[in-house]
Amino acid sequence: MYKNLRAFIAELERRHELIRVREPVSSELEITEIADRMVKREGPALLFENVEGKDFPVVIGLYGSAARTALSMGVPNLDALAERVSKLIQLNPGKGGLKALMGLLPKLGELKGFFPKRVNGGPVQEVVLRGEQIDLSRIPVLKCWPLDGGPYITLPIVITKDPENGELNLGMYRMQVLDKRSTAMHWQLHKVGRRHYDKAKRLGKRLEVAVALGGDPILTYAATAPVPPIPGVTEFNLAGFLRGAGVELTKGVTVDLPVPAEAELVLEGYVDPAEEPVVEGPFGDHTGFYTLEDFYPRFHLTAITHRKNAVYPATIVGRPPMEDAYLIEASERLFLPAAQLILPEVKDYHMPPAGVAHNWVNVSIRKAYPGQAYKVANGMFGLGQMMFAKVMVVLDEGAPLKPGLEGLIEALKNAVPGRDTLVTRGPMDVLDHSSRAMGYGGKLIVDGTKKLEAEGGAVPFTLRVHTSLPAMPGVNQKQWPGIWAATFQKKAPGQAKSLAEKLLSTPQSAGIRLLLLTDADTKLDADELLWAVLNNIDPERDAWVMPGAEGPVLVLDGTRKLEEEGFTRRWPPKIVMAPEIVRQVDERWEKLGLPPLSRLEPVATG
């Protein structure tokens, strides 16, 4: 395992998985454009040694492939994470439910055995800056995308303490730099950091905060993981379990909080709930769309501590695939055994990158009785952050879960739209821009399992692709087995439904069970289409069952919603890099010492 970030960097370099860029680069957009090209081809991590006007180098792309993410966690592949947890809880897939869950709690309590180790000082406190010395503008915080409200800290480990019971929490929340000594703190509605803030507000207290950057790469991952709410078990324990040794912690110099002794930098300070929130955003988010402005607390810095010759770690999020997809896959593997303990019929599950984690889940089950697919789907919706899932596709054991499109096609062989689809409601990620309300919207279950007699039995159906599609001006079209996609320039309410009726009235709707509609700026590429459609639907409003040439067709209206259609929320733009930055990077690529992109293969997303 890796004691700290620089040990991991050294290992990546030894494996030729890291490139040092010595030419001057800008932290405003340029690093993003370079890193985005690299991660979309599973290229090496990047260490930018000379960032214009800044005091520290930037490392980015540490988790830029499944293999590199597994390496950061000391396992041969990400599937090994599930094996490790299975051994911890001694999973018996034949038993489940509440009794099994209660039996799991003391086993998860074994995570307490990986307590952090307290040390005095540490490398992260080699340099201590206070008062007027604090200057966030000297840190190479990236402005990632053209419409971002400012530079954003994107890979922070945010440490807070529950004001009532003292429980620690580590979370990863983006932080917009507001000035030299403060940032916004993006504590969303459902996050533990937000809960600590709300408690502090009720008690009339300031909330101390410490933000670590760097350290053991496992600790950075742990800050993103959905750790179960078990008293005394924190993300520090999870990191200790994964690394096989407790994380070394030292006390902050101005806050009563533990901080990783081996981190590169730590920002210390407080949030005062008595203050008015600040405007935060926009931000080019992991959904591939901008999250628009909103109000969030201000984080005041009281100290910056750092190693001598510290390295600033960063990531970017945006249109998939991005490196957050590999962190999501790690969590997917890590928490599979716990899901199986509660829902023992679950064989496996996968969150395809096109679904940006919360929009799409494929799950396979060992089916034994009618309605079991819905039982599992609703059970999955009840598992922690899985409550944000929008579309749940249930398949039989042995069916492919990834690539995601392959799993979806397999489901369509068995799913009769209307009969085997179900729309429901529940909590949504607050970043979801298309739901009926912020944090609340529709969900879709697709039962793609083979049907028992009580469920209506099998309906013979052959998924088809037609070589010739109907000519319709302004409409671009493509088909995959059982799936028809069309993009067009939407100008009026009701236009999507009208187009669906026209398409489905043609002979080319024979053998089709899913029609995807979205905007003209979307490429006719399976992953991009599904990404756009899933982002842009609230299933309760935008999933229709309509007649086709050979039976019912599920239509998903993934177009931009208009005010005339009753949609009153602001619709965000898709993330697109500024053309001048693209040209600049094109011209500088070779001089920067970067490998020709032709040598790197584009990522085949799952």
Helix content: 10-25%
Number of helices: 16
What does the largest sheet look like? 9 strands, antiparallel
**What is the number of beta strands?**
30
How widely separated are the two ends?
28 Å
Mean pLDDT: 92
Strand content: 15-25%
Shape: globular
- The Cα radius of gyration reads 24 Å
The assigned structural class equals alpha+beta
Low-confidence stretches: 91-98
Which tags fit this structure?
single chain, 606 residues, alpha+beta, 9-stranded antiparallel β-sheet, 5-stranded mixed β-sheet, 30 strands, 25% helix, 23% strand
Short structural description:
The chain has 606 residues and is of the alpha+beta class. The chain contains 16 helices and 30 strands.
Can you tell me about this structure?
By secondary structure, the chain is an alpha+beta fold. 25% of the residues lie in helices and 23% in strands. The protein contains 16 helices and 30 strands. Strands 5, 6, 7, 8, 9, 10, 11, 14 and 19 form a nine-stranded antiparallel sheet that branches. The protein has a five-stranded mixed sheet with strand order 21-22-23-25-24, sandwiched between helices. The longest helix has 12 residues. The chain is globular, with a radius of gyration of 24 Å.
How are the elements arranged and paired?
Layout: H1 5-14, E1 18-21, H2 30-39, E2 45-48, E3 58-60, H3 66-72, H4 79-89, H5 97-108, E4 117-118, E5 127-130, E6 152-153, E7 157-161, E8 168-171, E9 175-179, E10 182-184, H6 192-203, E11 207-213, H7 217-222, H8 235-243, E12 248-251, E13 258-260, E14 265-271, E15 278-280, E16 283-284, E17 290-291, E18 294-296, E19 298-306, E20 312-314, H9 324-334, H10 336-342, E21 346-350, E22 360-365, H11 372-381, E23 391-396, H12 404-412, E24 421-427, E25 440-447, E26 476-480, E27 483-488, H13 495-504, E28 514-519, H14 526-536, H15 539-542, E29 543-548, E30 551-558, H16 579-588
Parallel strand pairs: 1-2, 3-20, 4-12, 22-23, 23-25, 27-28, 28-30
Antiparallel strand pairs: 2-3, 5-19, 6-9, 7-8, 7-11, 9-10, 10-19, 11-14, 12-13, 14-19, 15-18, 16-17, 21-22, 24-25, 26-27, 29-30
